[in-house]
Amino acid sequence: MNFSIEQLLAFVTVYEQLSFSRAAIKLNKHRTTVGQVITNLEDHLAVSLFERVGRSVEPTEDAHLLYHYAKQTIEQARTFDKVALSLSYGGLENITIAYSSIVPQRVLVDIRKQLKHDFPMMRVNFLVRNKEEIKQGLKNGEYHFGLVNVHNSRAMHSLDATFLGHFEFYPFAQKGGAIASLDKDEVLVALRNSKQFVLKSQIDEGMSEKIIVSSDYEEIDQLALIIKMLEAGLGWALLPKAFFTDYEFSKYQIEPIHSEQMVEGFKFGFALWCPHSKQVSEVKSSMLSVITDYRKRLVNSFKLSES
């Protein structure tokens, strides 16, 4: 059997909207047209996909089984279209890398150094954005790369996604301050009862349940301001363990806090997102080489610090 992308797109949209009218608006088509496309698809399949209930519809068991494959086919078709389109264009002279505010700045500096070496004439822009903004920016062509936290992302989308591994987060507080001076067995109780500063981007990305330890917490938009708050002894915050090994760390008056109950830190996965495009492939390889090297240095640094 042969099915058109139009039929599969109509099926997926009606499935997700649970309405022919809402699906028609989303597809910019007349309701009758969408209904006819679905009817034709049902005839091809010889199965019923939706139960009509008044103005809404309910997917049948067969529709539930087929939805995932239809969605995947549409994403693959979009990827094919983007890759084919990219083949007719030349190299990139200007790229924009959007990144989560909790990505260690050291790795961003190393990426810029490598790109300067590999693409000396290329202009590189770095922008802090949350995950949803990065996804939309990549889809509409505003951004070329995204360094994102993927703790709850679905695996299926039209972007080229490369998992980079996990960043480990530890509590940080004022160096030599009240929390840092506690015995390890007292730290966890102190953290629960002390002011916690949380990056707003982490809240926006649905990480509240995983990162908020204290009921007394405040949201802050910028990592630099959180560090200033910690240096002033106003509270504590979860920061990447990698931050402790960065070459600029010594200038900050903060330190990681170790707890007897916390053998390991909080771990969150990160990924490099980009469009499926011939133009970005070489730049992507250059960036991945830097990130791989950075993670190796982190592992070695941790081993030295623990020995």
Give a written overview of the molecule.
Strands 3, 4, 5, 6, 7, 8, 9, 10 and 11 form a nine-stranded mixed β-sheet that branches. A two-stranded antiparallel ribbon has the order 1-2. The longest helix has 29 residues, at 278-306. It has 307 residues and is of the alpha/beta class. It has helices at residues 5-17, 20-27, 31-45, 61-86, 105-118, 131-139, 184-192, 200-204, 208-211, 223-231, 278-306, and strands spanning 50-53, 56-59, 94-99, 123-128, 145-149, 160-174, 196-199, 217-220, 236-240, 254-256, 266-274. The mean pLDDT is 83. Helix 1 (5-17) packs across helix 3 (31-45) and helix 2 (20-27) crosses helix 3. 46% of the residues lie in helices and 21% in strands.
Annotate the secondary structure layout:
Blueprint: H1 5-17, H2 20-27, H3 31-45, E1 50-53, E2 56-59, H4 61-86, E3 94-99, H5 105-118, E4 123-128, H6 131-139, E5 145-149, E6 160-174, H7 184-192, E7 196-199, H8 200-204, H9 208-211, E8 217-220, H10 223-231, E9 236-240, E10 254-256, E11 266-274, H11 278-306
Parallel strand pairs: 3-4, 3-5, 7-8, 7-9
Antiparallel strand pairs: 1-2, 5-11, 6-9, 6-10, 6-11
Average residue-wise pLDDT: 83
Tell me the total number of β-strands.
11
Poorly predicted tracts of residues: none
Q: In one word, what is the shape? A: globular
Taking the sheet with the most strands, its summary is:
9 strands, mixed
The end-to-end span amounts to 63 Å
Radius of gyration: 24 Å
- Give the helix tally: 11
Residue share in β-strands: 15-25%
Order of helix and strand elements from N to C terminus: HHHEEHEHEHEEHEHHEHEEEH
Based on helices, strands and strand pairing, what is the structural class? alpha/beta
Q: Residue share in helices?
A: 40-55%
